[in-house]
Design a protein that fits this description.
Layout (H helix, E strand, L loop, with lengths): L5 E11 L2 E6 L6 E2 L2 E3 L6 H13 L1 E5 L5 E7 L2 E15 L11 E4 L1 H7 L3 H13 L8
Parallel strand pairs: 1-7
Antiparallel strand pairs: 1-2, 1-4, 2-3, 2-8, 5-7, 6-7
Length: 138
């Protein structure tokens, strides 16, 4: 029996003023964090930064060490996502995928309710315990 291909991705948990940036998937049915497939010649950190800009219109300081990883299955492939924490310093009004996605900023508790992947929820919980997110925002 053939196993499904393992596809590597990188993602960013983007936080500003105690709120987390979520975007809709391309279908508009789920709330996710910006992520994209690794490309030859680029690091996971570079991909996480690029996807945060392209999908969510945010720039910031990406912490160099991943905060975790999670797995999901889609279209017959198994995706392994390495997640980085980003302190957002700039939010654009216009960005490449603005017409394809919605963006929202949520308090941590609200964010966790909208995320369906249990692995990603756990990473967000663990990251927020270490992140500079104000306790009164939760």
């Amino acid at each position: 029996m053939a196993s499904s291909p393992r596809l590597e991705q990188a993602a960013a948990i983007a936080v500003k003023d105690g709120q987390i940036c979520l975007i809709t998937s391309r279908s508009g049915k789920r709330w996710v964090i910006p992520k994209g497939r690794l490309e030859r010649g680029k690091t996971a950190e570079e991909i996480a930064r690029e996807e945060a800009w392209e999908e969510a219109g945010v720039f910031g300081i990406l912490h160099p060490q991943p905060v975790g990883s999670y797995v999901y299955v889609k279209w017959g492939g198994t995706y392994h996502v390495t997640v980085f924490f980003m302190e957002v310093t700039e939010v654009a009004d216009e960005w490449p995928e603005r017409s394809l996605r919605r963006r929202c900023w949520l308090k941590p508790a609200q964010c966790l309710v909208r995320i369906h992947n249990s692995g990603l929820r756990e990473i967000i919980r663990n990251t927020l315990a270490l992140a500079p997110v104000r306790k009164d925002e939760g």
